[in-house]
Amino acid sequence: MTHPESFKAFAFPERHGKLQKITLPWKDPKDGEVVVKVLACGVCGSDEFLEEGHFGATYPRIPGHEIVGDIVQISPTVTQWKVANSLMELREMADTQEYVTLRAEVLVNLPADTDPAEVAPLLCAGVTVFNALRHMDYGPGDLVAVQGIGGLGHLAIQYARKMGLRPVAISTSPSKKDLALRLGAEAFLDSSKEDIGKALT
């Protein structure tokens, strides 16, 4: 495959700076690496921490760590992947760019019909919630409280239900009730009006 000599990325030029479009030079992958064309990159709360300088003081800094993309170039030492594999990756920051070079071991294969925009956010919020649930000591039918129905909570309800648990959604926002129940919560508790400890026992 032919590749461009350069490509676009978005970066914070300095601490508290606004995102700017920059140009990066193409680099062929080194041993153990692949180059991925980014199809979707989720936006996470930690990207704001990057902008504020909490992850080091070297700038420009490219945010993003939730990507779905296609492999476009592979180093000769990589044998488990092929060009055009659709994948997602789990790694450090720096994915809001057209192409990204990654270690082959951080990739996960995806079905070809995957919607990149739907899958990308699962790489941070989704993995965080899934790991918390899978390491819990529980059995089928156990009650699990999900505190907050936001970026992680709405996924926790769905995962818990699929794992055979009985999720109860807890929030101070009554507007989240319909969503929580639709996603599979057995009940919704408004912690601004109820004693949650009593309600759960």
UniProtKB/TrEMBL annotation:
<dbReference type="InterPro" id="IPR011032">
    <property type="entry name" value="GroES-like_sf"/>
</dbReference>
<comment type="similarity">
    <text>Belongs to the zinc-containing alcohol dehydrogenase family.</text>
</comment>
<keyword id="KW-0560">Oxidoreductase</keyword>
<keyword id="KW-0479">Metal-binding</keyword>
<dbReference type="GO" id="GO:0004022">
    <property type="term" value="F:alcohol dehydrogenase (NAD+) activity"/>
</dbReference>
<keyword id="KW-0862">Zinc</keyword>
<dbReference type="Pfam" id="PF08240">
    <property type="entry name" value="ADH_N"/>
</dbReference>
<dbReference type="Pfam" id="PF00107">
    <property type="entry name" value="ADH_zinc_N"/>
</dbReference>
<feature type="domain" description="Alcohol dehydrogenase-like C-terminal">
    <location>
        <begin position="151"/>
        <end position="199"/>
    </location>
</feature>
<dbReference type="InterPro" id="IPR036291">
    <property type="entry name" value="NAD(P)-bd_dom_sf"/>
</dbReference>
<dbReference type="GO" id="GO:0005737">
    <property type="term" value="C:cytoplasm"/>
</dbReference>
<dbReference type="GO" id="GO:0046872">
    <property type="term" value="F:metal ion binding"/>
</dbReference>
<dbReference type="InterPro" id="IPR013154">
    <property type="entry name" value="ADH-like_N"/>
</dbReference>
<dbReference type="InterPro" id="IPR013149">
    <property type="entry name" value="ADH-like_C"/>
</dbReference>
<feature type="domain" description="Alcohol dehydrogenase-like N-terminal">
    <location>
        <begin position="30"/>
        <end position="84"/>
    </location>
</feature>
<protein>
    <recommendedName>
        <fullName>Alcohol dehydrogenase</fullName>
    </recommendedName>
</protein>
